[in-house]
Each structure stands twice: as structure tokens, then as C-alpha cells.
RNA sequence: GGCCCUAUCGUCUAAUGGUUAGGACACGGCCUUCUCAAGGCUGUAAUCCGGGUUCGAGUCCCGGUAGGGUCACCA
């Protein structure tokens, strides 16, 4: 009989959510959803100096965008109380009292200067500093004004199992009498997260590898409290694209909502991120959120860190955009170019669907240099460029006049790319495709690069197409 | 420095001890109506090094090397 899986994502509200944080949230959420368990969003705001206003809302907004829902969170307390640590101070005090009563917690009697001297001395002697070397023989009564430390119950080698890394262990050097409650009354992360995980029934703790080396300390605290130890899963880091370092804010790790603003699909972003450090065990890469939940297996998570590759994210986004209906695709585009007329948009849609990887790019398509820029603005150009590879200007002029002749009879309502092509194609085939198609396209767009001439004509409409062709003839 | 972790194409990754070491991104080539994209096909490209175990090692063991993490009244 397996106990219900309970996981949590526990960020501190110190600014925006970056890629690494979100990926941790995704894995914890997937493990819970895969097992029909519970996912908790807990806010670890025990360092009031580092707190950034608005972070809690921002974190929630980021997770909501990605479709990561929580069963308990800052807005949804549980039987265990609030999911915001600063509102749970009584819980930590109670746990601290248990340790004090057992003789396993004591107030730190030293001043900051004394402590600093201990550090210096250890450094001078070239040995690692351990607070427990200075543990007082007799514990004072804790009045709440001094830091409260754990009396490490047993100095020994700890071994434990990690769902990702396998069997891990560390020697007694990793153990020390760490601080449980700071002199300002707030608990440390080391203490608070364990108390909360117990109170909230967390069964699986997923976090980054920076916590591996403090795991023995956590284990000693579980021992001291006599609590059960949850399963641990250490996630690999997301690296900078040069692979030298963990991706951090200084390296351009963006606010995840920045990707939303650029027009990435949440499902694509989620899909790409989950593939850094995990795979479904087969060749599938483009997957829906539902497919990913089905396939998710914490045992298939990588041990080594992986680099974040924005190129592949773009590709992934395009794959997900391809799956969208025209209506949804159009809605995604319109946010970025609200002033383009509905008609043009509908006709240009196939071209746009082909070319952009991210919705935000639709802005550049209609810009001066963009591939659809000709729709809104016909640039001036050198008439000589109307000729295809050495064809004379006189012949080019004839070709364009012929095109005008061929297009004239088509009714404006029938002015589709197929109809236009059908009208022009036979002539182009006998005359030389380049000789006809290049000048036609150039006369319509005034630029070297664009979609094919039939589509361009269709997008412009009959009236504008004929006008531009006549203008070109006039130049020759 | 102590302790700990990691190591397959440039990148993300696959491979019950037996495969020509597979896929994807990127890159190159070709094709697909003129250009540019998109798409299709295709090519280049990897088991960090050295020992051992084994008929056989990317896979197991040992030792190096390289990279990373951590040693806070931060999380």
C-alpha cells in the first residue's frame, strides 16, 4: 500500500522566477500529478532582508501561465495552516521546544566577534571550521534573543538513498550544530523546511544539487526529532549554454514571464524545460502536458546538468504552434500586431504559420525589413532589379504587361493564389519561370526576399496588385 | 583546502555486458515552382584518460583528469 504522494515547490520570494526554479516546480508537480497526489506551493519567506515586494504574486502568475496548479498554496491554506512560512512561526517554535526538551537544542552563547575569531583560527590552522568544536558544555536557557542551534545527536557517517543519484553518503565532517532559529525569531531554511514537510505530509523532496552536501545535517535533524525521512530526489542543474556554470540571473537567466511576453506557448516552454534532465524513454520529444504526465518517471531523470539552448526552445515552440488551430494561431498573432487589418491577416496566415517560431516574431514580419513588410509599405527600388539574371529591361517590361493582361479577367473575389498561379503559369513555363516570376514578385514587393508571387498577389488583393504592376511598368 | 557530486556528437539525449553507438537541435549538401523561409531527403560529428574484471566494457571495479556543488543568523 503506497502512501499518497505529496510534493512541494518552495521558492523564496526574492524576485522573479527563473528557468531553474520553474524546472524544479515542473518536476515536483509532475511527480504529484503522475501519482494522483498532492502538490503544494510553499513560500519560504524567512529572510525578510532579501524579500522583494510582489514576488509571491509573481511566482503564482508564472506557475499559472505554465499550467502548474497547486492543491495548497499562499492562497489556499490546509489543515496544517498557512503555506507562507512567516505565518507559521508558532509551528517552528513548537518543534524547537521539542528539541530543547530533549536537550538537543541550545542557544548560541557567542558574539559575532567571537565566532569570527573561531573561523579565523580554523583557517590559520588550515582545517575546516566546525561550530561543534566550540559547543558549550552547559546550555543556557533560551530566551529567544540568541540563535538556537541543534545539538547534533550523533556524529557519524550518514548514508541515504536518492531517487536520481542512487546511494549517497558523507562523512562526519558534513555534520555541525547549525542554527535552527535566528536571533530575529525566524527559522532558518534548514529547520523550517523540515518542520513544514512533516506538518504538510510531504513524501518526496525534489530540489537542486546545491542541497546535497547539507543532507547529512537534515538527516541529523530528522534523527533528533524522531521524524520519518521523506524520499529525496536531487535534480540536475540547468547550465549556461557554455556549460561552465549554473544558469543564474547574472548570466541572462530571464524571468519566465519574459518568454510569455515574447510569445512562447506555455506548453512548448514546459515541454522544452522538462526535456532538460529527463526523457520519456523513447524518441518522443514534442509532447503535450498530458502525455508528459503519463510518461513521467523520476527514475529517468539525469544526474548531470544540462545546458539551456534557446534555439531548440524556438524549434520546440514552432512544433507546438503547428498543432494549433487557425483560430488559436490567429489569436496568438493578433496580440502582437493589433493594427493589421483582418482581411490581410486571413490571407497572410499560411505564410505566417510557415515562417514564425514564436508569436512575437509576427511583429518583424510586418516591419520594414520583414517578409510581409511589403503589405504595409512599398519601398522604392532600382528598376534594374526587376530583371531576372540578364534579361533585358525591355523584355521584362513586356513580361509584366503580359502578367497584367492575364490577371485582368480574374474577378476580385476569385483572386486566390491558385487562380493567379493558373493564369500565369503557362506563360511562365514557355517564357522561362525566372524571367516572369522574379519581376512579378519584385514589382509587388520591392524586395529580394518574400513569399512566392502568387501568395503575395493574393495578400495584396487584385486592385493593389494591378496598381503595383502598372507602377513597375512605368518605371521601365 | 575538507567533504560531496558529475562525465556519450558543439547542445539535449538513447543504448538487459554483445547495435555499423540511435534520435533531436544546430551546421553542411540535395530536392521541392524565381528569391527567402518552411518542408522532405541526406551528410559531418561523441563514449574524458589509464589500468583491471570479462570471450566481449559507453555500461562493472580501481586510479587519474576535468568540471560543478558546498563548507552563512541565504535559501
How would you characterize this protein structure?
The mean pLDDT is 94. The radius of gyration is 32 Å and the shape is elongated. With 476 residues, it is mainly alpha-helical. The protein contains 19 helices and 11 strands. Helix 1 packs across helix 9, helix 15 (393-407) crosses helix 17 (433-445) and helix 16 crosses helix 17. Strands 3-4-7 form a 3-stranded antiparallel beta sheet. A two-stranded parallel ribbon has the order 1-2. It has a two-stranded antiparallel ribbon with strand order 5-6. The longest helix is centred in the first third of the chain and has 16 residues, at 19-34. A hairpin with a 3-residue loop joins strand 5 and strand 6 (166-170). The chain has 3 domains: 6-239, HUPs (Rossmann fold); 326-376, no CATH class; 383-475, Arc Repressor Mutant, subunit A (Orthogonal Bundle). The chain binds one RNA strand of 75 nucleotides through helix 4, strand 6, helix 5, strand 11 and helix 10.
Amino acid at each position: 500500500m503506497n502512501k499518497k504522494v505529496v510534493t512541494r515547490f518552495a521558492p523564496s520570494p526574492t524576485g522573479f522566477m527563473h528557468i531553474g526554479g520553474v524546472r524544479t516546480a515542473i518536476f515536483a508537480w509532475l511527480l504529484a500529478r503522475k501519482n494522483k497526489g498532492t502538490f503544494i506551493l510553499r513560500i519560504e519567506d524567512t529572510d525578510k532582508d532579501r524579500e522583494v515586494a510582489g514576488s509571491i504574486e509573481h511566482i503564482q502568475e508564472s506557475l499559472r501561465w505554465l499550467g502548474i496548479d497547486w492543491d495548497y498554496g499562499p492562497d489556499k491554506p490546509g489543515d496544517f495552516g498557512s503555506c507562507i512560512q512567516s505565518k507559521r512561526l508558532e509551528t517552528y517554535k513548537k518543534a524547537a521546544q521539542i528539541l530543547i526538551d530533549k536537550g538537543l537544542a541550545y542557544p548560541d552563547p557567542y558574539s559575532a566577534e567571537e565566532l569570527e575569531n573561531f573561523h579565523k583560527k580554523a583557517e590559520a590552522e588550515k582545517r575546516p571550521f566546525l561550530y561543534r568544536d566550540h559547543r558549550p558544555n552547559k546550555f543556557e536557557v533560551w530566551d529567544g534573543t540568541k540563535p538556537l542551534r541543534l545539538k547534533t545527536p550523533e556524529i557519524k557517517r550518514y548514508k541515504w538513498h536518492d531517487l536520481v543519484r542512487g546511494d549517497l553518503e558523507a562523512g562526519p565532517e558534513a555534520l555541525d550544530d547549525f542554527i535552527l532559529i535566528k536571533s530575529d525569531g525566524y527559522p532558518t531554511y534548514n529547520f523550517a523546511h523540515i518542520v513544514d514537510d512533516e506538518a504538510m505530509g510531504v513524501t518526496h523532496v525534489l530540489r537542486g544539487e546545491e542541497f546535497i552536501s547539507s543532507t547529512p545535517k537534515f538527516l541529523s535533524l530528522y534523527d533528533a526529532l524522531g521524524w520519518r525521512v521523506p524520499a529525496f530526489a536531487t535534480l540536475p542543474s540547468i547550465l549556461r549554454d557554455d556549460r561552465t556554470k549554473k544558469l543564474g540571473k547574472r548570466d541572462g537567466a530571464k524571468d519566465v514571464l519574459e518568454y510569455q511576453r515574447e510569445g512562447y506557448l506555455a506548453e512548448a516552454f514546459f515541454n522544452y524545460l522538462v526535456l532538460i534532465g529527463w526523457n520519456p524513454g523513447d524518441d518522443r520529444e514534442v509532447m503535450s502536458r498530458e502525455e508528459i504526465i503519463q510518461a513521467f518517471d523520476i527514475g529517468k531523470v539525469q544526474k548531470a546538468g544540462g545546458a539551456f539552448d534557446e534555439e531548440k526552445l524556438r524549434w520546440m515552440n514552432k512544433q507546438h504552434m503547428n498543432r494549433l488551430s487557425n483560430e488559436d494561431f490567429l489569436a496568438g498573432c493578433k496580440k502582437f500586431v493589433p493594427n493589421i487589418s483582418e482581411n490581410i491577416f486571413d490571407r497572410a496566415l499560411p505564410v505566417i504559420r510557415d515562417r514564425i517560431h514564436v508569436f512575437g516574431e509576427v511583429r518583424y514580419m510586418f516591419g520594414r525589413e520583414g517578409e510581409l513588410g511589403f503589405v504595409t509599405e512599398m519601398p522604392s527600388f532600382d528598376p534594374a532589379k526587376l530583371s531576372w539574371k540578364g534579361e533585358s529591361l525591355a523584355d521584362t517590361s513586356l513580361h509584366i504587361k503580359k502578367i497584367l493582361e492575364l490577371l485582368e479577367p480574374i474577378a476580385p473575389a476569385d483572386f486566390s493564389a491558385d487562380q493567379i498561379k493558373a493564369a500565369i503559369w503557362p506563360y511562365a513555363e514557355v517564357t522561362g519561370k525566372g524571367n516572369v516570376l522574379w519581376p512579378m514578385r519584385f514589382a509587388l514587393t520591392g524586395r529580394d526576399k518574400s513569399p512566392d508571387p502568387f501568395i503575395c498577389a493574393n495578400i495584396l488583393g487584385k486592385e493593389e496588385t494591378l496598381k503595383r504592376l502598372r507602377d513597375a511598368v512605368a518605371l521601365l
